[in-house]
Amino acid sequence: MGDIQPATREAARPVAPGRRGAVVAALMLSMALAALDSTVVSTAVPQIVGDLGGFSVFSWLFSGYLLAVTVTLPVYGKLSDTFGRKPVLVAGAALFLLGSLLCALAWNMGALIAFRIVQGLGGGALQGTVQTLAADLYPLKERPKIQSKLSTVWAVSAVAGPGLGGLLAAYADWRWIFLINLPIGAVALWLIVRHLHEPQRQSSPSGPKTPSRARGGSRLRAPRDATRARARVDWAGALAVFACGGVLLTALVQGGVAWPWLSGPSLALFGAGLALAGLVVVIERRAAEPIIPGWVWRRRTIAAVNLALGALGLLMVAPTVFLPTYAQSVLGLGPVTAGFVLSVWTLSWPLSAALSQHVYRRIGFRDTALLGIGAATLILFAFPLLPYPGQAWQPALLMLLLGAALGLFQLPLLVGVQSTVGWSERGTTTASVLFCRQSGQTIGASVFGAVANGVLAARLGGAGDLDSVTRALAAETAPEAVRDAVAGAVHAVYLGAACAAALAFLVLLCVAPRRFPVLTE
Fold it and tell me: Is residue 124 packed enough to be buried (19+ CB in 10 Å), middle (13-18) or exposed (0-12)?
């Protein structure tokens, strides 16, 4: 049934289910750290700026962290395939906690931004390695359990993060937003060090022997095809990937915000990014163990999933960035109620993801994902058809349905693509998928921001952008025409998101094989 018709067999998985719970708890705590850090800072910005100053550059608190996470994902993925998951996860968690401590000690906005980048360097290891370990720990039939748990952690963090940040900033001090990471991360680190035991690598070309289980630990499957006398790391490729990603993502994040798209700084960054991309290709072709190996894009399954989840990152910008503005500016809701309109999709997404296994076991990974993204396309196209100004339950209902559709889309693709590779390729594969999704979000924020501002300028006679219009609406001094212009801008963004969803549908239909080449276990 489904995709479970492979011709290749993967090595046995010597896992102790009774001890696996401690490792899963560590993974969930690590995921909570990474997820909370993306949202908890947002509501404390006024207090941070009031204390440290630097209002003109505070957006880099988010952009710097996002850039560091995104550009390090491929590097950490390859390192985890080379040296194992445990050392990468331990090093990443330690770096994240060091960044958190430094953020709490920051003396001005520049220092805080720099320390947020340090946090992001560790956050890249947390995000990629947690998802890879989830696949290592569980056989295919049980992977939806751990993935649904991680999805739930991410959803709860997305809802709780802003509220937690606001409470800490209002009743304690904004520095506690970072200090609270330390005890949580310390527990996660202890659980990983104590309970996660990976098999020793063997230098024999015949493959590793079956290791005895370490006392009190959860032991992972040994890699069949990654045994080598000495690991070689493509440090030149890692540096080139980091530089290329950093320059291009900076151009996308700052373009149209800090400077016009066609200005000198924007063109210079894009030109430097393209030159660095060419350098990456040259280095990776010559490297014995490239950070981004060519097979990531030569294999139809992985390439299709990368492109489809890149489109997912693109379309997610519409609800996460623009729906709160729509709810407050057009529907007239308060911040709390507007947040609820967005957060309802965090209820249906994990539930749909957990139930998706019953669908893909019958019809396969690709067809399940097609069903989910096809429904998401229709839901996104329906948003501009909502009545103006409308009621709050209408966009909330669409978000509830959208979460269910995307849960049916994302998890089968992630589980499916991880199941097509062995241990020694899973970290690289998972990192490439997450990198594409993160890059899609960055591109989406830039593109859809330009679309929204363009629609506003056209409807308001060439004046205004989304930020200035939203501030005017918050002061309740703007006429009805401005509210209508905001509605039109958000509708245009949702149409763009629907096109991104349709693109993901076409990629899966035309590029992905109907049956994923799953490895048996």
Answer: buried
pLDDT digits (tens, 9 = 90+) for 322-331: 888 788 778 8
List, in sequence order, every residue forming a beta bridge with 520; answer none if it has no partner. 9
Helix (H, G, I), strand (E, B) or coil at 255: strand
Return the sign of the alpha-carbon dihedral for residues 331, 348, 125, 184. positive
Residues whose CB falls within 8 Å of the CB of residue 297, separated by 6 or more in sequence, listed in order: 303, 306
Task: Please choose, from the candidates 288, 274, 282, 285, the residue with its C-alpha nearest in 3D space to the C-alpha of residue 245.
Answer: 274
Specify the pTM.
0.81
Which parts of the chain have pLDDT scores under 70?
A: 1-19, 38, 42-43, 55-56, 158-159, 162-163, 166, 199-231, 257, 335-336, 461-479, 521
Gap between the Cα atoms of 370 and 155, Å rounded: 23
Give CA separation, 204 vs 11, 225, 252, 347, in Å.
16, 11, 47, 49
Strand pairing report for 218-219 and 196-197: parallel
Cα gap 221→116, rounded to integer Å? 35
Give pLDDT, residue 199: 67
**Centroid of chain to Cα 318:** 15
